[in-house]
Write a structure and sequence with these properties.
By secondary structure, the chain is an alpha/beta fold. The protein contains 17 helices and nine strands.
């Protein structure tokens, strides 16, 4: 056995300390959700004659027939037709654009105020599409819906009513619900993860008076706040978080309606979910790099707000730190290198917090679903999230070094599915499978007992890798049978 290099031990101690702080942040939010009183937004109820014009923006990219469903839901909104303008912002490059044209033309013939905007150059991706649409409208309020959500009829009455009642609100965010929660264990796990975000994190931030991040859909913005904050910017992959934080730095507040739910479709394949999580992770870290200096330089925010915002948008850095600590910590786990007592204490503390914090977060997110069901969803969420370690660590590193990448939308099950060349089908999941098997082989050869520390990571990597490969085989089989 060898003594640890001081620099390695110092890095591990620093990484473990930050990981412990990120876990403590989740515990604080969970306790705040349990112990603080509920808050309700005041809602104005003007007569129909006094209702303002609302612009509804639908940013689309290769969404297939989902455009018909979302437009059907928008047309069912309880709002005067002469004060409802609809923009279909379709940058599609497949057959989806033809569907959008057909549906929009049919609504135009019925007298609906709707227009289709198609950009050949996808500059700034979703942010660019939203900005291009805003340039063609002077509506004072703007609602944004992704194609896979279905707003209820009273959505605008409640959200715009809240904005009318409180002039300092930049936007109101509704809570996501899930149309296909019961489709598979994967969708149930995703639903629980998202419920933990909305029911615990967003609700706790709302009760504490902290900024509520805009989630990119199911929200209504005050146009004046968008303009005052500098408008939509496409230099990050989470343009929603970026704009909402810039609005807060300009003094605008945000509102959250936990009792207003908008159901949407969850990704049905592991690869689609992995793509989504990569984009969200990279976008959050990009916002961290871009905005944290402004946050701490702000005279508008109290210090504890600055700390909580930093922990919020820095949370995905846990994947980068976790991957680094895992690699450097392997010699310690196998007994080849011995660390000091401080490192040992930090490792135990960070590990305990790293399990306790997300478990409490996830359990509280969806109460009343039965012990066995909850256990499978919580353990599945922990394992599959661990299985994203490599992908999300790469996303975080790319953001830290300033590497730009395309906005890759989350693949939809109902959108047009195209066959991929057989030689590329096996690529999806191979990285996670190889890492999981390599890690398993290393600990079995060096120190089998160390698998107790790494069981969740190894199982998650193997699970995410195998599930991606099975998804690709199933997709290929479905496409082959059509031909």
């Amino acid at each position: 056995m060898l003594a640890a290099e001081p620099s390695v031990e110092l890095f591990l101690m620093l990484g473990l300390t930050i990981l412990a702080a990120l876990s403590l942040n989740l515990i604080v939010l969970t306790l705040a959700r349990l112990l603080t009183p509920q808050r309700q937004l005041a809602i104005a109820t003007p007569t129909d004659d006094d209702l303002p014009t609302v612009l509804v923006q639908l940013p689309l990219f290769n969404e297939g027939e989902l455009v018909e469903r979302i437009l059907g839901a928008v047309m069912a909104l309880d709002w005067p037709r002469d004060r409802l303008h609809i923009q279909v912002l379709d940058d599609s490059i497949d057959g989806s654009l033809a569907i959008s044209r057909r549906v929009v033309n049919a609504l135009l013939r019925d007298g609906v105020q709707i227009e289709l905007l198609h950009r050949v150059d996808r500059t700034a991706f979703k942010a660019g599409a939203l900005a291009a649409g805003l340039a063609r409208s002077a509506a004072p309020f703007v609602a944004v819906f992704d194609a896979d959500f279905i707003p209820p009829p009273d959505y605008l009455r409640r959200t715009v009513g809240a904005l009318l009642a409180q002039p300092d609100l930049a936007y109101v965010q509704a809570r996501w619900d899930h149309l296909n929660r019961e489709e598979s264990l994967l969708t149930r796990i995703q639903a629980r993860l998202l419920d933990s975000h909305f029911r615990i994190e967003q609700e706790a931030r709302w009760r504490l008076g902290l900024p509520i991040p805009f989630n990119g859909t199911c929200g209504v913005w005050r146009r004046a706040a968008i303009d005052d904050a500098g408008g939509w910017e496409g230099d990050t992959l989470t343009e929603d978080l970026d704009l909402s934080l810039r609005a807060r730095l300009r003094g605008w507040r945000s509102g959250f309606m936990h009792d207003l739910t908008v159901p949407g479709s969850l990704p049905v394949s592991t690869r689609a979910w992995r793509v989504q999580q990569f984009r969200w992770t990279k976008g959050f870290v990009q916002c961290f790099v871009k905005l944290i200096p402004r946050v701490w330089a702000s005279h508008e925010l109290p210090r504890w707000h600055k700390l909580m915002i930093s922990l919020q948008i820095g949370q995905p850095l846990a994947f980068v730190l976790g991957a680094g600590c895992l690699l450097l910590g392997l010699p310690f786990m196998t007994g080849a290198v011995v660390g000091g007592q401080t490192l040992t204490a930090l490792a135990i503390t960070a590990s305990l917090l790293g399990f306790a914090a997300p478990i409490g977060f996830l359990v509280l997110a969806s109460p009343g679903r039965g012990a066995r069901r909850s256990a499978s969803e919580v353990l599945g969420a922990l394992a599959l999230t661990s299985g994203l370690l490599i992908s999300n660590a790469r996303a975080g590193l790319e953001a830290l070094i300033g590497h730009q990448s395309e906005f890759v939308r989350t693949p939809k099950a109902t959108a047009t599915q195209q066959a991929r060349p057989p030689r590329t089908r096996w690529r999806y999941g191979l990285m996670e499978l190889a890492a999981g098997l390599g890690l398993l082989g290393f600990v079995l050869l060096e120190e089998p007992f160390a698998i107790t520390y790494l069981a969740m990571v190894i199982g998650g990597l193997l699970g995410v890798g195998a599930m991606q490969m099975l998804d690709e085989l199933a997709l290929a089989k479905r496409i082959d049978t059509r031909h």
